[in-house]
Amino acid sequence: MMVAPVTAPILIRGTGLLGTSIGLGLRAAHYTVLLSDPSPTAEAIAQDIGAGIRLGDAGEDLPGLVIVAAPPEAVAVEVANALVSYPEAVVVDIASVKIGILARLLEMAADAETALTRTDLSRYVGTHPMAGREKSGPVAARGELFTSMPWVVCPAVDLSTGEQLSAETAVADAVQLARTLGASVHRMDPSTHDDSVALISHLPQVAASLVASRLQDAPADALALSGNGLRDVTRIAASDPNLWVQILSANAQPVVEILYGLREDIQRLITTLEAPTAPGGQADIAQLIAEGNAGVARVPGKHGAPPQSFAVVTVIVDDKPGQIAAVLNDIAEIGVNVEDLRMEHSAGHQVGMVEVSVLPGKREELAQALTNIGWKVVLS
Ligand SMILES: NC(=O)c1ccc[n+]([C@@H]2O[C@H](COP(=O)([O-])OP(=O)(O)OC[C@H]3O[C@@H](n4cnc5c(N)ncnc54)[C@H](O)[C@@H]3O)[C@@H](O)[C@H]2O)c1
Ligand SMILES: O=C(O)C(=O)C[C@]1(C(=O)O)C=C[C@@H](O)C=C1
C-alpha cells in the first residue's frame, strides 16, 4: 500500500497516455513504479521516457498498489486479475466510466467459476482523473497532467444494497495517489459519477465532434480564417475514436437524456433562425446566448473555486524559438503573476500571439511595462 512508497512498488497496468502520465508523476514524487502493457512498444516507450521500469526487468518485490490504466472495455478483467494475482495489493482503475466496470466485477465475484471473490473487492477502488488530452499513447504523456485537476474517487458498492465494499484503507490509498499527483479529490458514488460525466465530459466530446465534422468539406479559404472560437470549441474533436466508442457506449443512457434536451434547443433555434425577424425571434436568439452565459458562468476554476475572470494581455512575438521564454522572463521581472497562458499563430503571418491571463488589476501595469521594454502588446 502507499504508506510504504519506497519499498512497495506501484504497478501501472496499461502504459498509454494516462498510465504513463501517472508513472511520470509518481516517479517525480520518488515512488518506485513498475510498468506493464500488452504492447511491448508502449511499455518500452513509457520506460524510456522515465515513467518507471518494465515489470519484466524489475526485482521480486510485489506491488502494494496496482493502477489499471487500460481501455475501459479491458478494465474489469484487468482489475480482477490484479486482485487475484496480488492478494495484498490495493487495486484502482482510472477509467472514464464507472458503473459498468463495477457491475462486471460484481458479476465475476458472484461466479464460482472465477477466482475473484467478493472479499477481494474490499481492495478495489474505482477512480477517474478528470484530466486528459486529445492524444493517446505514452508519447503524449505529461507528469503534471493532473496538477490542480479534479480526481473522482468512487468506492465500490453493492449495486443492489448500496453497501460499501471498498475498505476505507483502500480508499485512503486511492485518495493519496490522487493527491500525490497534485489533483483535488471528489468522493462520489459510481452512479452519480456516470451521470455527472455525461454532462461535463461526454456531452462536450459529442458537441466538439459534431461541430468539427461540419468542417470536413469546408473550403480551405474559409478554414484559413479560423480564430480562437473554432479552436476553443473543437480541440477535443481530435480524440481517439476507439476510446470514445467505449466511453459513450458504456454511458449511453445518461448521454441520450441530455441529447434529447439539446435536440429540442437546436430545433427551437432552427425555427427561430428560419424567420429571425418574426415577432419574438430576436428575444429568442438573445435568450439562447444568455442561457449559455449563465451556464458558462457556473464552470468552476481551479480546485473547484468559483470561476475568476482574468484579463488577457496579448503579446505579438516573432514565430521563432525562445520568444515565449523571453516574454515570460520579462513578465517575471516585472513581477506580475501569470494565471494562464496560450499561444496562437496568426494565419499566413510569421508571428505568434502569446496570450497571457493576469488579474484584472494588473492588466494596464503589465501592458505598459512590456511596451516600455519593446514588446508589441495588444489589449483585448
Ligand atoms: N484520454 C483521456 O483523456 C483520459 C482521461 C481520464 C481517464 N482516461 C481513461 O484512462 C484509460 C486509458 O486511456 P488512455 O487515454 O491512456 O488510452 P491509451 O490508448 O493512450 O492507452 C491505453 C493503453 O492500454 C493498453 N492496453 C490495451 N489492452 C490492455 C489490457 N488488457 N491491459 C492493460 N493495458 C491494455 C494499450 O496497449 C495502451 O498502451 C481509459 O480507461 C480511459 O477511459 C482517459
Ligand atoms: O482535456 C481533454 O482533452 C479531455 O477531454 C479530458 C477529459 C474531459 O475533461 O472530458 C476527457 C475524458 C476523460 O475521461 C477525462 C477527461
From TrEMBL:
It catalyses: prephenate + NAD(+) = 3-(4-hydroxyphenyl)pyruvate + CO2 + NADH. Its EC number is 1.3.1.12. Belongs to the prephenate/arogenate dehydrogenase family. Residues 312-380 form the ACT domain. It is an enzyme of class 1 (oxidoreductase). Residues 8-307 form the Prephenate/arogenate dehydrogenase domain. The keyword Oxidoreductase applies. Pathway: Amino-acid biosynthesis; L-tyrosine biosynthesis; (4-hydroxyphenyl)pyruvate from prephenate (NAD(+) route): step 1/1. It holds the Pfam family PDH_C. The lineage of its organism: Bacteria, Bacillati, Actinomycetota, Actinomycetes, Micrococcales. The keyword Amino-acid biosynthesis applies. GO terms for molecular function: prephenate dehydrogenase (NAD+) activity. It comes from the Bacteria. Keywords: Amino-acid biosynthesis, Aromatic amino acid biosynthesis, NAD, Oxidoreductase, Tyrosine biosynthesis. This is Prephenate dehydrogenase.
